[in-house]
Amino acid sequence: MQKKVALLIVAGTLALTLIVAFLIILKPEGKKSKDPFTPQPTSRPSKHEEGEGQKKDRETFFALMHRAAPGIEYQKMDNMLRKEKMLDRNAILPSSSGFRAEEYDTLANGFAIGLWNETGSYNTAGRIWATEIDFPTNTVYAFSDGGNLWKGNLAGSSWAITNDNFKIANTSFLRKINDRLIVATAQWGVQGVYYSEDEGVTWTETTGMDNVAEYGYIFDAVMLNDSLHTMYVLAYNWDYTNWNAIMSLYASTDLGESFTEIVNWDEPTFGGSGKFNIWCARDGSDTAYLIENDNFYSLLEDGTPNYISTIPFTAEGDAVLCGYENGSDKRFYVAVYNWDESTSKIYT
């Protein structure tokens, strides 16, 4: 009987020892945690720890970055500036109606005054390159940096990208005629005009500008307010006979499906793309206007340039043409920018 008791004591002691050993093996190293799933703290060498001297050096460095006159505390100035900016933002935060405070913006030295409200899309960075509004459906289309086509409503509450499978960057022109979207791009080495009939999901490239696709790009595009919605583009491309660059005027009368070259100007004689620009009133007459250096033209029905006058430029530079048309009242403006002198002038 005593032997049995002794064996039981030995067996119990052995079992208890094994259990304790097992628990010790499973016990995680480091600081105890009530949560068994909490990861252990990262172990790093003591030499990587910031000492008191390094902390003081860092504070001294920041103080040097914000040097100010004696007695001026840059921390207080920084806090005051942050507070002022916060108050400025609060003043233009959206009101309960969804629009910001009644504060008018004055742009272009007072020539453009209005109440502007941002309607998105809020999750895109960079600039908007080309826009179009389809008023029958109150739909807005906008090409952004990176070549995305955004589609939304006038309230800005339903923005979505439609061309995930085919990006079109550097767009300079966007128009919707019936169910067709037409876009022109300044991308190098493509024909430069695409059209879509499924809201931008798929795109078809135009034809007739193979020379531009070989070497060149489109730098301006307009569409007339005529029955055919005639489209003109100016393109930089190459003359393989005379071996020099040329500026070409192309025209399309089938909503961007194909283009035909009307006329070209060689770069050695007439200059580069900055010397040319084209404009027409979107909802005005069916006439487009063109500048070539200081020469001002209208385009005839077949696209041939018709000389009107010479613009009295007093400075060389790149020119941009725009205008205003209301019946017989027509006004034209040309802005010329001189890159060497960083100056600009406007002619009317």
Strand order of the largest sheet: 3-4-5-6
Which radius of gyration do the C-alpha atoms yield?
A: 35 Å
**Estimated share of beta-strand residues:** 25-35%
Order of helices and strands: HHHEEEEEEEEEEHEEEEHEEEEEEE
Mean of residue pLDDT values: 83
Low-confidence stretches: 30-37
Number of strands: 21
Largest sheet: 4 strands, antiparallel
Q: What coarse outline follows from CA principal-axis ratios?
A: extended
How large is the count of helical segments?
Answer: 5
Keywords:
single chain; alpha+beta; four-stranded antiparallel β-sheet; 19% helix; 34% strand; extended
Concise description?
With 348 residues, this protein is α+β, with helices and mostly antiparallel strands. The chain is built from 5 helices and 21 strands. The chain has a 4-stranded antiparallel sheet, with no helix packed on it.
